[in-house]
Specification:
- This protein is an alpha/beta fold.
- The chain folds into five domains: 10-107 and 203-290, Rossmann fold; 119-198; 329-395 and 493-589, Rossmann fold (3-Layer(aba) Sandwich), CATH 3.40.50; 396-492, no CATH class; 635-713, HRDC domain (DNA polymerase, domain 1), CATH 1.10.150.80.
- 46% of the residues lie in helices and 11% in strands.
- The chain contains 27 helices and 18 strands.
- The structure holds adenosine-5'-triphosphate and magnesium ion (MG).
- Adenosine-5'-triphosphate (ATP) binds next to helix 2.
């Protein structure tokens, strides 16, 4: 019986997209730049093959690399009547597809040996590291884990790791022979465990092996699935390719889509060579190139073309100049700031204005090279009560090292042998550095990506302390801890309505109306370890991957794009070091931009809100949220505060949410101090937006006015 034929609207495609969709059954490769509609093309091709009776819906397996992307594909297929339910097209990640297949085929292949998926590889790697004589700190174990994952994804066995690591310029956290020993130890520990333990890469390995070694399994599988589609094919690893080959067997009904110039996961073992060699492997493949960019304005597209136009090497040779299809928009903006704090203040102010002018917060993103750069943005958005979500990394204050650091500072605060002078002013900075040393704040930046990230977070805390002390001489340790607590609280829980803060890696494939690319300094993007250390030569391949990251960042923007960098960056030892803007920006900044006259004039910083008591600018989240300086008077009515907290507890329970989701302690304190009489007064308090007023405004105003009435009738 024929499948129900879904409506297929070929007019929604341009001629090249339509050519890829209409190509007859067999190998098809779409090599296309960012925003050219690759996913649209894939979903239409699937529909077309089904409509033409070439394949049944449930014989199609579509794979991509993240659960989010697979979900997006299922959504698009569902709107075309080809949803992911049983009997429909299967759209999954490689891992999810392999997990299903392995569960099904395991009894035929291995019999009744039980297996289970590892919950966490961490303790096993940690034990293997200790057995190898290493002091297994958290960051070392994480870095070892990355190396093991890279090796497995690249089909490199433990004994071959040392040689392969040299060829691929791996930034190994310890001697490569030691890494190999830990890798071997990890593999043995999984096999000798009670029943077999499998990690995600083992799922793929076992799936491929089952199909390669058991003809009955291969026959059954190949009878079931006939047509394969892969999105983001430039980021396929050798291990995933092996699974794909096992799925295909001798067949060639494969459609791949990718953009080699967006390859940004090489460090995990991904390689664009399968995409670039596709027509060599399948000489009769239909190859289609797409150049029309439907996502971004011509201004953004022109900048993207310039960024990638400077690329060198084989991958760059495959680039296509994009042609913008959208109406004209604003020119991309370039800006230089004194330091990361000033940058975050200015970006937050711009975001506030965009939102006020009608851009939804969910259509705005701030993207940076490393997760450690998110802190000032979290702080400034929090202080302005702009909701945000941190993607592809925890929020700054949720990070393990930051929690450890805060607890080390609390312990220091509890000591009774520290004189008051040691707790404030410039001594506070020394104190903080000393307290963070045992947590991992070394004088030199450590080796290994995870260790670097952790170290940068600790350095960010020192920087914050310096910033606060420079504005407030007698800022002491207790006040610092209160400031940190307020900042941690100010982060709104994950919400789909918020501004996205994400690393460039996590932003792949996504799009927003407004994008801020921040921290574009040399040494951050490109990241400094590709620039050659200690007389090592520049890692050219690494440098090109960093350039592609900028290209991915630029092409996320539909309309507004802002690129910024800072003149200074905190370095080891806590001093500011002058830094220069990213070398990738050379030649891109128009002469008319004020940022092209580097550092001649002081960068314009957004005005800070003023203290309602002394009218000086407010410094720090705690002060901003209360609307007064830490030292200015503003005692809250304790009974009112208590009443508000009681109400909050009831609300939170009814909603089954945490207390701070309703209002944070600092916001309640601000209410109890400022005694708002109406919605407008409520809205003037940081942390209270239109949505909160709609949900809770009436309740809060009623509590305040009833407390005021009680005070009038019954003055204390
Ligand atoms: P990336 O490389 O960033 O993953 P992509 O090539 O996958 O990008 P899509 O996300 O599929 O691009 O498409 C980008 C945007 O352009 C989407 O909003 C999509 O709906 C739109 N689009 C694609 N093709 C067309 C078309 N022919 N007409 C109008 N809009 C289109
Ligand atoms: Mg895409």
């Amino acid at each position: 019986m024929m499948d129900r034929v879904p409506a297929l609207d070929l007019t929604a495609l341009d001629p090249e997209q339509a050519a890829a969709v209409r190509a007859s059954r067999g190998p098809v490769c779409v090599l296309a730049g960012a925003g050219t509609g690759k996913t649209r093309t894939i979903t239409h091709r699937i529909a077309h093959l089904i409509a033409g009776g070439h394949v049944k819906a449930d014989q199609v397996l579509a794979v991509t690399f993240t659960a989010r992307a697979a979900g997006e594909m299922r959504n698009r297929l569902r709107t075309m009547g080809l949803g992911g339910d049983a009997g429909q097209v299967q759209a999954r990640t490689f891992h999810a597809a392999a997990l299903r297949q392995l569960r099904y085929f395991w009894p035929q292949v291995v019999g009744d040996v039980p297996w289970r998926l590892i919950d966490s590889k961490f303790p096993i790697v940690s034990q293997a590291a200790q057995r190898a004589g290493l002091r297994a700190s958290t960051e070392l174990v994480r870095d070892l884990l990355s190396e093991i994952e890279w090796a497995k994804a690249s089909l490199i066995a433990p004994e071959d790791y040392p040689a392969a690591a040299a060829v691929h310029h791996r930034d190994a956290p310890v001697d490569v022979a030691k890494v190999a020993e830990v890798y071997q130890g990890y593999e043995s520990a999984k096999a000798s465990a009670d029943g077999l333990l499998l990690d995600f890469d083992d799922l793929l390995l076992h799936t491929a092996a089952a199909l390669e070694d058991y003809p009955a399994v291969a026959d059954e599988f190949r009878g079931r699935y006939r047509s394969f589609v892969v999105d983001e094919y430039q980021d396929v690893t050798p291990l995933q390719q092996r699974v794909l080959d096992a799925w295909l067997g001798e067949r060639d009904d494969l459609t791949v889509v990718g953009d080699a110039n967006q390859t940004i996961y090489s460090f995990t073992g991904a390689t664009p060579s399968y995409l670039l060699d596709f027509s060599r492997r399948f000489p009769d493949a239909t190859v289609v190139r797409l150049e029309r960019d439907y996502r971004s304005t011509p201004q953004v597209v022109s900048l993207a073309n310039q960024v990638i136009g400077a690329a060198r090497g084989r991958i760059a040779g495959t680039r296509l100049a994009l042609i913008g299809q959208r109406p004209q928009g604003p020119e991309p903006e370039f800006a230089e700031y004194a330091d990361p704090q000033a940058e975050a203040v200015a970006v937050a102010a711009r975001i506030e204005k965009l939102i006020a002018d009608g851009t939804p917060a969910a259509e705005i993103a701030v993207l940076y090279r490393t997760n450690a750069l998110s802190e000032p943005f979290e702080q400034e958005l929090g202080a302005r009560a702009i909701p945000f979500q941190v993607r592809g990394g925890e929020g700054f204050f949720q990070r393990q090292e930051v929690r450890q650091a805060v607890s080390a500072l609390r312990q220091a605060d509890a000591r009774d042998d520290l004189p008051d002078e040691a707790r404030c002013g410039s001594s506070l900075i020394t104190l903080v550095r000393a307290a963070l040393a045992p947590v991992g704040l070394t004088a030199e930046e450590p080796a290994g990506a995870q260790a670097k990230e952790r170290w940068s977070s600790l350095l960010a805390l020192v920087q914050l302390t310096e910033e606060l002390v420079s504005h407030d001489d007698d800022m002491d340790l207790t006040a610092l801890l209160r400031e940190l607590a307020t900042r941690a609280e100010a982060k709104h829980p994950p919400t789909v309505d918020g501004v996205t803060l994400a690393s460039l890696h996590a932003a792949k494939g996504l799009e927003w109306d407004a994008v801020f690319l921040a921290g574009l300094t040399d040494g951050t993007l490109p990241i400094f370890h590709v620039l050659g250390r200690k007389n090592a030569p520049v890692d050219e391949a690494g440098l090109e991957e960093e350039r592609r990251l900028l290209y991915v960042g630029v092409t996320r923007a539909r309309e507004h794009l802002s690129l910024s960098w800072t003149q200074r960056r905190l370095q080891a030892g806590g001093d500011y070091r002058p830094v220069t803007r990213s070398r990738f920006l050379n030649g891109l900044i128009p002469d008319s931009s004020s940022a092209s006259r580097i550092a001649v004039e002081a960068p314009a910083e957004a005005p800070r809100p003023l203290c309602r008591v002394c009218l000086k600018p407010l410094i720090g989240t705690y002060a901003t949220m209360l609307g007064r300086c830490r030292r200015c008077p503003g005692e809250a009515d304790p009974l009112l505060l208590e009443a508000l907290k009681e109400w909050r507890a009831e609300k939170a329970e009814a909603l089954q949410r945490r207390d701070f989701v309703v209002f944070t302690d600092t916001t309640l304190t601000a209410i109890a101090e400022q005694l708002p009489a109406d919605d407008a007064a409520l809205a003037a308090i940081a942390g209270i937006g239109a949505k909160k007023i709609e949900q809770y405004g009436a309740d809060v105003l009623a509590i305040v006015s009833s407390r005021l009435r009680a005070t009038v009738q019954n003055p204390r």
